[in-house]
Amino acid sequence: MKIGIASDHAGFEYKSKLVDLLRKKGFEVTDYGTFSDASCDYPEFAHALGNAIEKKEVDAGIAMCGTGNGMAISLNKHQGVRAGLAWNSEIGRLVKAHNHANVLVMPARFISYQMATRILNMWLKTAEDGGRHDRRVSMIPVK
Ligand code: RB5
Predict the structure, then answer these.
(1) What is the pLDDT of residue 143?
(2) Predicted TM-score of the model (pTM)
(3) Closest residue by CA, ligand 1 atom 1
């Protein structure tokens, strides 16, 4: 599974650690920036990841900014992207099982790094639920 990852300056530290963690787990990871903790504009990096998912360069994504909202709002402008915000592991499970989030977004300024790893592990191991959840997810795209 190929995973893309992106953040702004607020998520840079956690992103750097999560890239290492994911590579140790055997994932092929592409880092779409930012590449330092210097102040930057989250849409630039969200759109880099969103474009990569649209072009199927990666299968799924992880994104972080201070609240997670800037990343989620920007990513969800992309066709085929379902970016869901999670701030604890149960939401990390539900955002995959119920919302079929193919991008996990986390609020780096409001969770510990340990919590970020718990959420990530939960999201990675959770399967997408079918049935009514499939139906609801299929109704999301605007025709
Ligand atoms: C940066 O200060 C902050 O606004 C950004 O990380 C994010 O929270 C935006 O949604």
Answers:
(1) 77
(2) 0.98
(3) 66
